[in-house]
Amino acid sequence: MAKKRTLRGEVAIAGIGETTYYKHGQSPDAQFKLTLKAILAAAEDAGIDPREIDGIASYADDKNPPDRVAAALGMKQLRFSNMVWGGGGGGGSGAVGNAAAAIHAGFADCVVVYRGLAQGQGARFGSAAHYPTSLAGEAATWIPYGVMSPAQIFAMRTTRLMFEHGIERSTMRSVAMAAYHHAQNNPRAVMHGRPLDEEGYDNSRWITEPFRLFDCCLENDGAAALILVPADRAKDLKQKPCYLLGSAQGAEYRSGAGGHNNPDYATSSFKTVGPNLFEMAELGPKDVDVVQSYENFTGAVVMSLIEHGFCTYEEANEFITFENLIADGGKLPLNTSGGNLAECYMHGLELNIEAVRQIRGTSPNPVAGAEVAFVNSGPMVTPATNMIVGSEATL
Amino acid sequence: MSSDSVLPAGLPTPTPLPDGLDAPYWEATQRHELVAQRCSDCRGWQWTAEYLCHRCHSFEMGFEAIPGDAKVFSWQRPHHPVHPALKAACPYVVVLIEFPDADGIRMVGNLVDPPEGDIPIGAPVDPVFENHAEGPNGEPAYTLVQWKLRD
User: Domain of A20: which CATH number?
Assistant: First the structure.
């Protein structure tokens, strides 16, 4: 019988680093400087000389190229550089998976995954003011109709989710309120000191129906980085090792069909990627202690939780409640640093970092006894990606 | 620019791909005809335009008039203007239209004279062809396909 091909337990996340997170346009530092700061912080956290990093992995839209990073850091050599395709934050967990695959395959020994993002210095994701005056191809079939921002591109999937499965607005509200609740214990969070209650959500302005303001991610400046090493090396480093148990990438059949023609429309692209992840991790959704689920929009979080099997469509309204989503006693603690809605929109990489903190026990909202943490990145984009990490006890 | 267009001038305008892949669609809209790609071999419908039939892998893709009803499949109502040209146009309604008799292909458009509140999913709609003249920078004339709820 052929040897099973898997990353389970082969590689560990040894270091995590973040800059201060800013509202968009408020970073005093250039985007590339932010990126370097986050990488150096992750190396310091791991207790690794940053010159020893020999591999770089990121995901689409990152504007901080690996050659410049390697040169700026004085890396002794660059042995691996890689980027997940796709837009926005779909590739965050996949970049961690690619970094681990490179280490396991022998391409590199110490790989950094990063995202540097200063929307004040580049184009804001929520604005289409910089679009060309004319365009061709698939996008020409929807942009001229005023479908331009990510919220507008994904809103109709959520309308359809609500129609097909009876998902209620209060279910999406719970996702937003849990994120804001967790951000109140996280001094790094951009929305620290800005709690959100039901009334605040219900009275917030429409961005595009069915999304209100608080259904939508923030726009921020900052950078985040994770450093991966072989599992056996991680034991000798500064931090409690956090092992990668699995990672998966992609989307279901014709998910990327143009002009909103993906056959299964109201999905977050995880119907196949979810099961593939759990197969590699040799775990099921019931084994997960804490969930970090990328919030571009709350409706996508609901889809993603269902598609990963944390509940069914029928159970969603009763299960995805504020009480169930909070770290202090909830059945499925969600986005325990505040996530994209309330900590920082670092294209989701802050969620991967929070998963590591949960395994270390250093989260601002620690889940008691957390051994298995789940992350998904970029629901509704293609490719979407995910990962599961665990403590030594899970190996 | 049509005086009664759903959205004002200034948004990105559509142009056919230089190699002609989707040119028959845009040319048909200017004749006020709605067509989509149909495989000359397996006769399956496909949208948006692609070089290859995803079912039978034939490259012989033609364009034919879409048969049967058009129905609202999903919708949204943007309130926040994400483009300067939309500042005076919000809110407006975007609909995703499904063609059940053409293998369920879908097209995006705007709803003309939308009702208040929720848009009825599944409701039949008819196309409204919206002509736009040549743009100030030489952008070619084009026609958008909008939708109207059937009375």
Answer: 3.40.47.10
3-state helix, strand, coil in chain A (%, to 5): 35, 20, 45
- The alpha-carbon radius of gyration of chain A (Å, integer) is 20
Query: Which of B11, B17, B89 is opposite residue A144, by nearest beta carbon?
Result: B11
Total domains present in chain A = 1
This prediction's pTM:
0.96
| Cα gap A324→A342, rounded to integer Å | 18
**What does the pLDDT read at residue A120?**
67
CA distance A194 to A341: 12
Q: Tens digits of per-residue pLDDT, B48-70?
A: 999 999 999 999 999 999 999 99
Minimal Cα distance from A127: which residue of B?
B82
Closest C-alpha among A21, A61, A31, A23 to residue A381: A61
**Chain B partners of A153 at a C-beta cutoff of 8 Å?**
none
Please indicate whether residue A345 is annotated as part of the active site.
yes
Residue tagged 């965050």 (tokens): A92
Render pLDDT for A313-333 as a digit per residue (tens, 0 to 9). 999 999 999 999 999 999 999
Whether A63 is covered by a domain: the verdict is yes
Under 8 Å between Cβ of B133 and B107: no
In a domain, A203, yes or no: no
What is the nearest CA distance from A366 to chain B, expressed in angstroms? 37
**Residues of chain A contacting B84 with CB distance shorter than 8 Å:** 129
Domain count, chain B: 1
Domain, as residue range, for A366 = 11-121+216-394
Q: Do B74 and A160 touch (CB under 8 A)?
A: yes
Q: What is the residue range of B112's domain?
A: 23-149
Residue A196, Ramachandran bin (φ over 0: left; ψ between -120 and 50: alpha; else beta): beta
Identify whether A78 is part of a domain.
yes
